[in-house]
Design a protein that fits this description.
four-stranded antiparallel beta sheet, single chain, alpha+beta, about 30% strand
């Protein structure tokens, strides 16, 4: 009985981690849509001024400045890649072309946050192979 209760607790806690990840991911994309790249970084990383984040912020700002105004954002199916890690995929649609985004969200002991962020103008650089398979 104890094993069954532990299994139930795990089953109900895992979706909560994914939900936290998706909610935070969505909030960042919406912040970007409303206020630009700095707002996304504030939503996802707070006031963290890590050098790596500064480099990412500079790159993302450079990309987005060339693409025009944001039209909308979209989130694709999150993937659980470990007990505490969720991989999220999204796109920011600009007037000139989309910018594809992949982020890994880690849920630790009572805290959660993004530990990896990648973006590209090419969806093949971001999405796993199974997203790209198309059959007629």
């Amino acid at each position: 009985m104890k094993k069954f209760l532990i299994l139930l607790a795990l089953l109900f806690s895992l979706p909560a981690h994914a939900q936290d990840a998706v909610g935070t991911f969505r909030a960042g994309l919406q912040a970007f849509e409303a206020n630009g790249p700095d707002a996304l970084f504030r939503a996802w990383y707070g006031a963290d001024e890590d050098t790596r984040l500064a480099d990412l912020r500079t790159r993302l700002t450079a990309f987005s400045n060339r693409l025009g105004p944001v039209i909308e954002t979209e989130i694709f199916a999150p993937k659980t890649i470990g007990k505490r890690l969720t991989r999220l995929y999204g796109v920011i649609y600009f007037t000139k072309r989309p910018l594809w985004i992949r982020a890994d969200y880690y849920q630790g002991a009572g805290i959660g946050g993004f530990v990896a962020l990648e973006f590209s103008l090419r969806p093949d650089d971001i999405f796993p192979v199974e997203f790209g398979t198309y059959t007629k």
